[in-house]
Structures are given as C-alpha cells and as structure tokens.
Specification:
Strand order of the largest sheet: 7-8-6-9-10-11
Distance between the termini: 34 Å
Bound molecules: guanosine-5'-triphosphate, magnesium ion
Length: 589
C-alpha cells in the first residue's frame, strides 16, 4: 500500500511526529494534500476529516506509507514568553543589571514627550558633545544606577518584539493623561503588558493642565484592575508633567524600586547574548544594528551571529555616539561588521568561530519555521504535546455590552487540563495589534458581530493566526467547547451504522460495477464510509458513491430492503461480500 513519492528520489528522511497530530498538520508536514492523508488513513481503516486529530500510531502508519522513517517527537520544552532569565548554570557569576523599560499609553497622552524629557534631564554622556543620536534605545543614570529606555513607545512595538520571540522589556511605564483619563489604548496597553507578565508603573501625565483630574484617573485605573499603592494596591503611580519636567526623577527612582524587586540579573563574564532593536543599511558603513545586550559582555572583535547574518565586530557605539570596546548587560549599542542587515527582534549571540556560527544560523532558520500559533483545529494537538496549558484568547465584540457575558461563558469552559484565558477583550473590529498579541501569546482571536481589518487579516494569514468570527453566541461558545473537549477525548471509537450482503453484481457501463445487496442491519446511506469484507479480509474502505432502489437514486436504505450500491473507486464485488457502513466517533470519557 506504500505510496512512492512523486519526486521518486531516495528519502529515508526521518519525520518526527507528536503523540497526536491534526490531519491538516500531518499533510503540511509531509507536504502532501490533506486529502491524500485522509485517503491513506481510510486504507488503514481510519475515517477522519481534515480537522480531526489522530494519534501517533495512526499518523505513523501514514508517514510510513509515504516512504519516510518515523519517530515520536519528544515533548516540547520551549519556554513561552517571559523576560530573559539566565539558566541555572549561569548563576555563579550573576550580577544585578539595569532594567529595560518601554513606555506605553493612549495616543497623545505624552509618551514621546516623556521619553524626550527623560533623555534631556538624564543623559549619561553629556561630554560627548551633547549630540545624542537615535539608535532605538538609550540609557540614563539616576543616583548612580542605570535605566535603559526603549525609544519606540507603544504597546504595538512592544508586542511586535514579543511576537518575534524577543522578550526584552522588564518594566512598562503606562502614561495616562490626567485630562483625558483611561482610554481604549490605555486598556490595550494594560492587557499587552499583562500578557507578557511585565510589571506596570503608572505615570499620570499632564498634571500641569488646569483640566487635570488625577483622582478620576486613579478611579478608572482601579476599575481596570490596576490598584495603586495609595489605594491599598501594589501598583506604583507617579504624577508627572513631561512638558514642565515635574516628577521625572521621582518616576525614575520608582522604576529603580520596581527593578530591585524584580531582581534583574545577568552574568557579564559570559559571551554576549542580545536582541536587535533597530537595523539599517548605511551607505558608507554597511549593515548597522542596534543591539540590546541581555546577558554577557560584547567585545570589539567578537564574532557574532545575528538572526541569519553574522560577522566580526569592527566597531561599537553607545547612544551618545561614543566608540566602545565593550558592552555589558542591558546596554544598547550600535554595531558594525555584520555581513547583512538583520531584522528587528533577531537574537545576537557571540560565537567562537565560523563552525559554531553556521550551526547557529541553521538553528535560527529552523526555529523561524517552528513557531506556530494555536488554532481551534490544532488545539488538542498542541495541548497533548505539552505545548499549551492555557488557551490564550483575544476577544473582540461589536459592542461593549456583548463582552462580559461571552467572556464569562468562555472562561467557564476551562478544564483541569486547559485554562481558557482571555488576555485581551475590547469592542470594535479585529485590528493588527490584536494579531500581534495573538502571535506573541501563541493565542487565537475570536470576534463577535464584528469584522476583521484587511491589514489584520493579511498578518494573520502570513503568521497562521486563527481568527474566528461569529454572529451567534451559541456557535462561538460551542466551537471553543468542542475544541477543548477534543483534548479530553483523544480516542475514536467506531460505530457500525449498517450491514448488507452482496447478492448479485450489475455492470453499469464505464462506471464499473454495482452490487445488488440486501440490508441486514441498520441502514446504508449515500456518502457514508463503507468497507467491504470478504471472510476475514477487508477488501477496501471507501465511501458509498451511489444508492438505488429500483430505478430511483435514494439517500438511505433501511434494514429488510434490497438496493444497488456503488462504491467510490471500487468495483471488484463478489457475491457473499459483506458491506459495513461505519462512522468514527470521539470516545466519551
Ligand atoms: N500640557 C502638557 N502637555 C503635554 C504633556 N506631555 C505631553 N504633552 C503634549 O501632548 C501632546 C502629545 O504628546 P506626545 O508626547 O506626542 O504624545 P504621544 O503619547 O507620544 O502620542 P502618539 O505618539 O501620537 O501616540 C503634545 O502636544 C505634547 O506637547 C504635559 O505634561 N503637559
Ligand atoms: Mg509619540
């Protein structure tokens, strides 16, 4: 039954498959259509549709039939999300490092102005001529301690980095304008920071304005679940004016307090690891990248791999444009010497030489291919391999009023094995930042009564993010419920729906043969899965192509009646063959 590959080339290639896998995913893995997978499964006696999940044995038989070696894939051990934590073996040389901070908040609430205010009042290297250059991040010094700020404000940029697998932010500063209060993007920013499990420091901005109302902002924040210290919660909140430069040093000191609680550490004695925050091609200097060092120390002359590019460090500059010989953890530096322009979010790793560089580049390429989002279709698959223990859902509804009830229904679907976690909800269409959040959180997006923005759909298609939109609450909840139940019911049982015995054979011209049968049990139905038994042997498994009572084509024939049966791609009936109509059903627990 083994099928020879079309290419015909030798391929004792090894395919690894998990404990269970979706039919569609198996097709992707073998680079054949799902239909071919379904056909092969049928030949092996398993009737599954494209969205179903099959177990290892079933999948392995298919893989073997396509001529590959097959092996069980070990459980995934990839870490998901979270900030950079050095490995246990690194603990020896661990030292405290500066925090890396991203500023977020609603449009026009003063993010850029705050970044500028911090930079102007606290830039470290004033003697370098005061020409701070824009390299994507900068460091300031407060009471002898450093803080690194990422120059691109907003939760979109923050989550876009996470979506690329880079977890660089330790603390977010949430800017809320005192005259405007908590707005939709403030809420988004809160959800994005929470999804990343990054602590939030609130900066109530524009307190110089006569319309400023700090109490109202604090009230709204507590409604959003951010209870500030003054109100008995644990969220640090500082009143500032980015314009008048009021409260800036207090904000910085508070950031350091939060950083201290986080115990951010790194080992400067190791070879460097970092993340690209900006990259460009300079006409005269070639590829340039701003890298935030996460661990270890980067030195001039080091060989580095950055994403899929590599090179030897020819020069290194800080945010003031000053040449450096080395860069320590949490320091942003601009580097020269790469052979091509890397991408924002790419990882930098110092390597011993070309051999290690090549191995690493290959690993990065493989990792790029492996990152895949969760969908309702592959949910069971992902959970059973240990990859998913929480179903992260981004839920958007047409109107605010629909959010709470549906949110509650979804959260109630949580089981012992999987928790349904609504990481972000809101009203309006599904937008690009929802998709980025889904990528970063390996989540899926559910919409109710709304539409998907074109840009969001494009991104979702490219990144393989599952977006489901509904107009009926029941269908929405039922689909998620079914997907979750899939994990509780990994096995399938076969149900025999009908049996018939072949009494006579009829030729039907070029279409082949039809069997004249007498239905002994249950019923036969058109389109149903059918197998032909001859004694102990199963001759074929296929589906009922045609069903006739006298001259009429019918959909069903019940026990006690006689009819003509045609089977798809089969005509070698013999008198005495037994036909069985069967259905595969998920076993109840
Ligand atoms: N009065 C007053 N105005 C401020 C303050 N901070 C910012 N602004 C003004 O508010 C407006 C928006 O500030 P930005 O810093 O551009 O706001 P943003 O959050 O970066 O806005 P986007 O980048 O568009 O999301 C500008 O006109 C600022 O001058 C402040 O503390 N007081
Ligand atoms: Mg701005």
């Amino acid at each position: 039954m083994a099928k020879v590959s079309k290419s015909g080339e030798a391929k004792a290639k090894l395919i690894e498959i998990p404990h269970s896998i979706g039919v569609r995913q198996l097709g992707d893995l073998l680079q054949v259509s799902a239909v071919d997978i379904i056909k092969q499964l049928m030949r092996n006696g398993i009737f599954a549709n494209i969205n179903q999940v099959i177990d290892y044995e079933a999948a392995a038989a298919v893989v073997a039939a396509f001529g590959y070696e097959v092996q069980l894939k070990p459980l995934a051990t990839t870490s998901v999300g979270k900030k950079y934590r050095p490995q246990a073996e690194e603990v020896g040389g661990l030292k405290l490092r500066p925090p890396v901070v991203t500023i977020m908040g609603h449009v026009d609430h003063g993010k850029t102005r705050l970044l500028d205010a911090i930079r102007q009042t606290n830039v470290m290297d004033k003697e370098a001529g005061g020409i701070t250059q824009h390299i994507g991040a900068y460091q300031v010094e407060v009471n002898g301690q450093k803080i690194t700020f990422l120059d691109t404000p907003g939760h979109e940029a923050f989550t876009a980095m996470r979506a690329r697998g880079a977890h660089i932010t330790d603390i977010t500063v949430l800017v809320v304008a005192a005259d405007d209060g908590v707005m939709p993007q403030t809420m988004e920013a809160i959800d994005h920071a929470r999804a990343a499990e990054v602590p939030i420091v609130v900066a109530i901005n524009k307190i110089d304005k006569p319309e400023a109302n700090q109490e109202r902002v604090k009230q709204q924040l507590s409604e959003a679940g951010l209870v500030i210290e003054e109100w008995g919660g644990d969220v640090v909140c500082v009143a500032i004016s980015a314009k008048e430069k009021i409260g800036i040093s207090e904000l910085l000191e508070n950031i350091l307090v939060v950083a201290e609680m986080e115990e951010l550490k790194a080992d400067p004695s190791r070879p460097a690891v970092g993340v690209v925050v900006e990259a460009k091609l300079d006409k005269s200097r070639g590829p340039m990248a701003t890298v935030l060092i996460q661990n270890g120390t980067l030195r001039l002359g080091d060989s580095v791999v950055v994403g899929t590019s590599w090179g030897r460090l020819r020069a290194m500059f800080n945010d003031a444009g000053k040449r450096l010989r080395k860069a320590e953890p949490a320091m942003p530096v601009e580097i020269l010497g790469l052979d091509s322009v890397p991408q924002v979010g790419d990882t930098l790793t110092a390597v011993s030489g070309e051999h290690q560089a090549r191995a690493l580049i290959q690993k990065h390429e493989e990792m790029q291919q492996q990152a895949r989002a969760v969908s309702l279709d592959n949910l069971y698959d992902r959970i059973s391999t240990g990859e998913v223990k929480e179903l992260n859902v981004i839920f958007k509804a047409d109107v605010q009023g629909s959010i709470e009830p549906i949110r509650n229904s979804l959260e109630r679907l949580s089981t012992d094995e999987v928790k349904v976690r609504i990481i972000h909800s809101g009203s309006g269409n599904i937008i690009e930042s929802d998709v980025t959040l889904a990528i970063a959180s390996k989540g899926l997006i559910i919409g109710f009564g709304n539409a998907v923005d074109a840009g969001a759909q494009r991104l979702a298609d490219v990144e393989g993010v599952d977006i489901r939109t509904y107009d009926v609450i029941y269908n929405l909840v039922d689909d998620v419920d079914k997907a979750l139940k899939g994990l509780l019911e990994p096995t399938y049982v076969e149900v025999i729906e009908g049996r018939a015995e072949v009494k006579a054979l009829f030729s039907t011209g070029k279409k082949g043969k039809v069997a004249g049968v007498s239905v002994s049990e249950g019923k036969l139905s058109r389109g149903a899965a059918i197998r032909v038994r001859r004694g102990e042997q199963i001759v074929v498994e296929s589906e009922v192509d045609s069903l006739r009572r006298f001259k009429d084509s019918v959909n069903e024939v019940s026990a006690g009646l006689e009819c003509g049966v045609g089977i798809k791609d089969f005509s070698d009936f013999q008198v005495g063959d037994i036909l069985e109509i069967f259905r595969k059903e998920r076993a109840k627990r």
